[in-house]
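User: What would this chain look like folded?
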Amino acid sequence: MPRVVSDQRNKFENEEFFRKLSRECEIKYTGFRDRPHEERQARFQNACRDGRSEVAFVATGTNLSLQFFPANLHGDQRQAPTRDYVDFERETGKVYLKAPMILNGVCVIWRGWIDLQRLDGMGCLEYDDERAQHEDALAQAAFEEARRRTRDFEDRDRSHREDLESRRQQDPSPGSNMANADVEHKMR
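Assistant: Here's the prediction, encoded as structure tokens.
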């Protein structure tokens, strides 16, 4: 099953959901809302250093669970994310974040920053053309493999039927015809 839709760029550019989220807008950290603000600040920073966090686009209420790793890793090796994905040093009091993902069948990159005191900031989605091309190639390869397997199955099935038919023609024993006649008689 392909992970992406067939025309990702068109969906990203024309679907209202993506059009809204592709404009920079207010975001908030949504983790541990029931905890004191100071604890939430510490948990947010630790989560970012671990390569993950939960944010919401305020205007739409869209919540995302983000992973700050290259698209091919997603934290599988349990390493710390690089500064390309989590940057505490670019501007004092803020963390700049980048999270590639497939969202609604479209390859995107979430980019934004969050104020470390207020736990809010600005963010948006960008179309990830490089990953989209890679995922399209994977989807095409999966489609071709499924087509090849179907063709192989049909060839084996046809060969099997032809083999059965040739055996039936070579051995017209009365018992085999009787069984067929009985089956036909029961079907009536």
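The CA atoms of residues 154 and 167 lie 20 Å apart. If you want, I can go into more detail on any region.
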